[in-house]
Amino acid sequence: MIRGQKFKIIKKRMLNPQTGIFVISAPYIAKKHNPGHFIILRVNETGERIPLTIADSDPEQGTITIVVQGIGKTTTMLNSLQAGEDILDIVGPLGNSTHIENYGTVLIIGGGVGTAEAYPIAKGMKAAGNKVIGIIGARTQDLVIFEEEMANVCDEIFITTDDGSYGHKGFVSDILKDMIQKKTKIDLVVAVGPVPMMKVVCGITKEVNIHTLVSLNPIMMDGTGMCGGCRVTVGSEGKFVCVDGPEFDGHKVDFDLLVKRQRMYVNEEKRSLNVFKEHKCKVSP
Amino acid sequence: MKVDKTKIKEIIKTMKIPRETELKIERDKDYRKDLASKMSAQNRNKIPRLRMPQQEPEDRRTNFNEVNYGITPDIAQQEARRCLDCKKPYCVAGCPVGIDIPSFIKLIDKGDFLAAAQKLRETNALPAICGRVCPQEEQCEMVCTTGLSTGSPVAIGHLERFAADFERNAGNILIPSLPAPTGKKIGVIGAGPAGLTAAGSLALMGHSVAIFEALHIPGGVLAYGIPEFRLPKSVLAAEVEYVMNLGVEIVTNFIVGKTATLDDLRAEGYEAFFVGTGAGLPSFMNVEGENLNGIMSSNEYLTRVNLMKAYLFPEYDTPISAGRNVAVIGGGNTAMDAVRTAKRLGAERSMIVYRRSREEMPAREEEIAHAEEEGIEFLLLTLPKRFIADENGWVRAMECVKMKLGDPDSSGRRKPIQIEGSEFILDVDLVINAIGTSPNPLIPQTVPDLRVNKWGAIVVEEETKMTNIPGVFAGGDIVRGGSTVILAMGDAKQAAESIHKYLMR
After folding, report:
1. Residue A175 belongs to domain with CATH number
2. A-interface mutation test, from B213, B249, B254, B258, most A Cβ less than 10 A away
3. pTM confidence score
């Protein structure tokens, strides 16, 4: 027989209209989770496999937490699920966990939904004795997530919104530049978020030679190194994000290539989402 | 690759036939003697080899239905009569899992097709698969006596497929009676051909077996790699079900090394392990532009289509770019699978780009012939040098150079040499890289003491298939690099016997 593991959604709520947070029963994964790890899930029988970073875990309860921004069909469909429902397949924890040690001062930058992914790293860095400074960036106030969680593990925290509806008006990079100008001591930067944000951050830190880690999320399928769909160029080498990453030296990542590769199926993704939305309208008028 | 007769005769001289006494007891049974007396060897040799009926090329290049239809009982029996029931059945020695080939063939001759299938299952848990994907022409059929005297060996593979299909279609897959439980728990890592075979063999010895599979369904390369038109998923599902009916448990979505380590599983009571995690990582050529959009590994392309059913997009969520001018780089079976898949997905030009000549292609002759019939173009003696992008970062062309063949290299094949000044541009919008794979690193990464060679393949003791860690055995592509389904199964059988000895010592 097939011993299927049940991945039941224990808790679910929307952090904002676009972003859901899920606590899911996954005892094996919860036991092995470390900051930086991700999972691959498939919602249902016709679903695709997508990678999502684990935002938190509770080994005693046997649960993991994921945060999902509804962009394409799969993430939109995920966000329509409720507590009590099952996710068909979850496998993990995948990737290499963040190398955590006492660096001194660590600056953690989370952009958009990336904040949820930056949070376990911030938590780990704090526990290792670092001074942790957090910067959270979002387009607008509604999209700021994990502020409280981050505040709990950061010694200092900054918030930026593109439209100025909350915190500093502008970008995370403004705060970073400001810190560098003020000669704030930073030993390590970890940036997790949209590729353009990570690229800008790395441009700034490279000039002043602050080691910067970025967490990449390219298109991925199996997550075990088998397909090579997640390959990126780091330095002059080809790397597979699933088995060599997901974190890399941000000063060496070819972000332009990454952006292009992320957009490989952009038309198909739009089509898939539209079909899904039309169908949903028909079944739930 | 063709091997000449003298070479084959030399190979035969070195062959040792396994289980000779057992084979002889079968051969001495009355029904065998009866059948043998019915026709002279001379007359048997006069029967022409069967022709496998198949879908017409014009039809099949637009669908994913199986190419070979299979054969009727009459044709199977006639083919079975071609077998001389040799005293020295070298075919058995040529089979990596040592199937008692004359016995199952003579049971077909006798008309007892279910018994033939059961005979197969004594040594092979996956006969319907092997009958379809094994390179018989390099194994059992290569050393067939009928083949050596008439030029066309008995169609052992087609007969194997016939018996297994007959049994499945009759809904009558007999589960052999299992010995008393030994109380030993064994963990098998990977539900591909090696893992399924090891698990099946161990279950037949009375052990309790669980297979841990990384993907969401079992089958490994049989599920994600080999296309429906060569191995229907329903056939795979039935074979997997058979293994489960032997009492084997399959745990999907479970990556040993990540979800739980070998030590965690030991703590759960598993006393021995078989690692059959396959050749995972695709190799790339490291040439300019290789990471452009529209360039992917055959693993990715085939997984999207076979495992994720991207050909049914948007009903299924996984997309695929179909491609109008598709180039597949490589000359192996995987390259043939990919290029024929591209044709079926609607490519106008579906091309093999291979740096040597047709002669050196590692793909099976049958696959190459099927590809040719389907209108696949073969750009032989051609090497891609770089890929050229359009304004959106998609591949639009590749620069190739023509090759000529020099002296044989370490693989025994003639080494391709670039012809200077022969560069040309080929328009393509999808490139599939099928130049090979290297062993999956996940287990070695997470079992630091495990010995691997410089390519990352697990090192095992030749006879026992045991790794340097006591109780941990391995076989198939994780040991061999890129090889075949049947050699993986052969390793797994050997490993299962060693595991049994190890646990019952």
Report:
1. 3.40.50.80
2. B258
3. 0.94
